[in-house]
């Protein structure tokens, strides 16, 4: 390799990294919009799980109409099948949609009570912890990343930010339990990004991975809805006529495809942290400009602490352990 090539290659990697981080920020903003749509749909239907299933069904139908009908999609599905047969891809790598189901169900159930901003800050804590574990274990396609003091400190600061942002809404047991749901959803989102990245790498395209994730999420949400119907009966609400309320599934397609394509370039933690930044920006804007719970001073403080935690945890992200 010539000296010029050695100089160009780091620049190319740097540009690729910037593009990946920018895409993650945009995807995070999309998650904030998805949270508001699922929350509103859940309020109209009277059930967050039913709302999540409705929006996910829209995404499944769109993906089934597109992915198998184009050559890239068909080829990617064949690659996934071949990887499963050879064992380079395990069956549980295709279960990232379960995490997505938990995430969108958490949106539909808790956003209406907590508000988008508090929900998002709570997700930050779970995502930070889940991303640390996913990167350290090499769960994603980009190899193992070390757990450093800065990363642990960033994760701890994120969890502290959850308490700061939500302390004024912890007056009841129900609210405390609702906070636990987005925390768990954050862990699930990190694992989902890692698993979808693996499937995307095997498919050599993000779209087959997105289809697999949506189908798994559809099945998981369908089973969850059956349990809800058995326990609580049919929801009192009805499907609203406004088509924009079902757009959360379309937003989810873009978010999952972005993760499947870019997470291998920058790792689960960096991708998640960049997504967190986008979520916070989008969530605070939505809570401030639309009807619903207003972001409190504590929420703004918690958001500021989270940004500091993001910067702290992302500092050593350029160091990576070799792939196995």
From TrEMBL:
TM ranges: 18-37, 49-71, 91-109, 115-134, 146-164, 176-195, 207-231, 243-263, 270-291, 297-314
Signal peptide: none
UniProt keywords, alphabetically: Membrane, Transmembrane, Transmembrane helix
InterPro entries in UniProt: YdcZ
PANTHER family given in the database record: INNER MEMBRANE PROTEIN YDCZ (PTHR34821:SF2)
Protein name: EamA-like transporter family protein
